[in-house]
Amino acid sequence: MYKATFKQFKIKASYKGNKKASWGDNWNNYMITVINAETDQKITFEFWASNAHPVLNTEYDILNAFYCFVSDAIAGSYTFEEFCNEFGYDSDSRQAEKIYRKCKKQLEKLKKIYDGDIYELINELQKVAD
After folding, report:
1. How far is CA 97 from CA 15, 23, 42, 75, in A?
2. Residues 6+ apart with CB under 8 A from 25
3. What is the pLDDT at residue 25?
4. How far is the C-alpha of 3 from the C-alpha of 22, rounded, in Å?
5. How far apart are CA 91 and CA 24, in angstroms?
6. How far is CA 7 from the centre of its chain?
7. Residue 83 pLDDT > 80, yes or no?
């Protein structure tokens, strides 16, 4: 298990490797746990490391996983039409709707542990995870 801290968040990555990514041949599956140390609220989400860099073993790697999660949550704050326009999806696509719903779920998870400005959060994360 690998750990990182960012602002009030304690982030842990546990390698699972037992689940293939739905979007390709990648088994580098992690369960990421994020705890807001100020409120003790906790969430988890799945993350797949890349095939080129399959191990999350540095603070940068873990913060990058959290950055990706927050980025998806931001996409969930758009309307479906805005989402499709932003990411080049056809608004009649069932696949686009499925991805959009997942982003909406990410947003709801993020709201459980963070009630601040998500754009401010991602900008601060980008400085350390980009």
Report:
1. 29, 15, 27, 12
2. 51
3. 78
4. 26
5. 23
6. 17
7. yes
Q: Which residues pair with 9 in a beta bridge?
A: 6, 36
- 3-state SS of 30-57? EEEEEEECCCCEEEEEEEECCCCCCCCC
- Tens digit of each residue's pLDDT (9 = 90 or more) over 37-52: 999 999 999 999 888 8
Is the Cβ–Cβ distance between 64 and 126 less than 8 Å?
no
C-alpha distances in Å from residue 116, one per residue of 10, 112, 123, 127: 17, 11, 13, 18
The confidence score (pLDDT) of residue 20 equals 81
Confidence of residue 130 (pLDDT cuts 50, 70, 90): low
**Pairwise CA distance, residues 47 & 15, whole Å:** 10
Within a 10 A sphere around the Cβ of 17, how many other Cβ atoms?
12
Phi, psi dihedrals of residue 123, rounded to the nearest 5°: -65, -40
